[in-house]
Amino acid sequence: MKNTQLGLPIGTTLDRFIKSKQDDFSFATGELSQLLRDIALAGKIVNREINRAGLIDLGGAYGKQNVQGEDQQKLDVVADIRFIRALKNGGEVCAMVSEERDEIIELDNPGGKYVVAIDPLDGSSNIDVNVSIGTIFSIYRRKSPVGGEVTHEDVLQKGSEQIAAGYLLYGSSTMMIYTTGRGVFGFTYEPSLGEYFLSHQNISIPKQGKIYSVNEGSYNDFESPLKDYISYCKDQRYAGRYIGSLVADFHRNLLKGGIYIYPNTGSYPNGKLRLLYECNALAFIVEQAGGKATDGKGKRIMEVEPTELHQRVPFYVGSVEMVEKVESYLKETV
Ligand code: AHM
Ligand code: MG
Q1: Main-chain dihedrals φ then ψ at residue 217, nearest 5 degrees
Q2: Ligand 1 within 6 A of CB of 246
Q3: Tens digits of residue pLDDT in 127-179
Q4: Ligand 1 neighbour 122 (Cβ under 6 A)
Q5: Is 286 helix (H, G, I), strand (E, B) or coil?
């Protein structure tokens, strides 16, 4: 490894940052760098679609037809298409799996070394109401030989095998946050320049926070130790913050300190969130930032063995001391 870089200043463009990180590795070929750039580019396009959505709505019947009488697609479908197209054209990815699709998506890039798992637009209940939403992605190296058929083994890898992961947050600003296993960096998008700029260096989550994020509407379905933990949060006068967009809730807690919980409930016996598309990426990021992500019963999310594409898992993620505290309550039910 060449030790050429001591850290780039705030305001560095994403392209330059990616390039400079690549230069740290003597044998890097630039393929992962290109892949990250492809994701960032698709993120810009999706950002544009999201910003226009309200205006299209004024033209009438978004989700049905646009003003020309053509069928309009829902934003989550649009985002899915945009990311697939960008990664297909980019050439580095041989296959994707998406929350929007039942099966593996082969990209016709036989030389591609990578597979990507993606939730193209998370926070579906918030899409139509102008509340922050996000894209979540995980990048793995394929297991099967390059040039051959893509296998289930390529896409059903444990989170610990991720070589990079990140999310785009379409909020009051659009941001891209990612890690390649050497810290977590955040970039804010400047739409008039069409560039992302480094805005958050080496993000570290506070060990202890004062925010808990859980859908308390499902409280009656929670196991009693979790109910006890929630009473503890109230006793501590923690703030309850839950917007129902995982990326937005996670991002706030990452920066301020806090815990996000999606436990098993009556409607979702294994939790609602998907291991491959949502939990693994955020687990990688939070661990890189010094936090923790488990299933609530002591198992690291990134060690959960995936057996099917749309597998769900209970998700406890955030500040290390908060996750350990809730686990100390839940231990009783192991
Ligand atoms: P989605 O993938 O259908 O958008 O569902 C995931 C979302 C998360 O963003 C959010 O944290 C959670 O579902 C909210 O679920 P609930 O409304 O059950 O609290
Ligand atoms: Mg989702």
Answers
A1: -60, -25
A2: yes
A3: 888 899 999 999 999 999 998 899 999 999 999 999 999 999 999 999 999 99
A4: yes
A5: helix
Classify the phi-psi angles of 273: left when phi > 0, otherwise alpha if psi is within -120 to 50, otherwise beta. Answer: beta
Domain 14-200 part of CATH 3.40.470.10:
no
Tokens standing for residue 311: 């597998």
d(Cα 178, Cα 158) in Å, to the nearest integer?
Answer: 18
pTM over 0.85: yes
What are the beta bridge partners of residue 1?
none
Rg of the chain over Cα atoms, rounded to whole angstroms, equals 20
CB of 201 shorter than 6 A to ligand 1: no
Residue nearest to ligand 1 atom 11, measured at CA: 246
In the three-class reduction of DSSP (H, G, I as helix; E, B as strand; rest coil), residue 64 is classed as: coil
Tokens read off for 215: 């859908």
Residue 126 CB less than 6 A away from ligand 1 = no
Confidence of residue 333 (pLDDT cuts 50, 70, 90): low
| Ligand 1: nearest atom to the Cα of 76 | 4
Give residues with Cβ within 8 angstroms of 144, minimum separation 6. Answer: 150, 151, 153, 154
Q: Which of 100, 131, 243, 262 to mutate to test the pocket of ligand 1 (most atoms within 8 A of CB)?
A: 262
Question: Which DSSP string corresponds to 7-23?
Answer: -PPTT-BHHHHHHHHHT
Question: Which residues of the chain does CATH 3.40.190.80 include?
Answer: 211-333
Domain 211-333 fold is D-Maltodextrin-Binding Protein; domain 2 (3.40.190)
| The pair of three-digit structure tokens given for residue 230, joined into one six-digit string | 């929630």
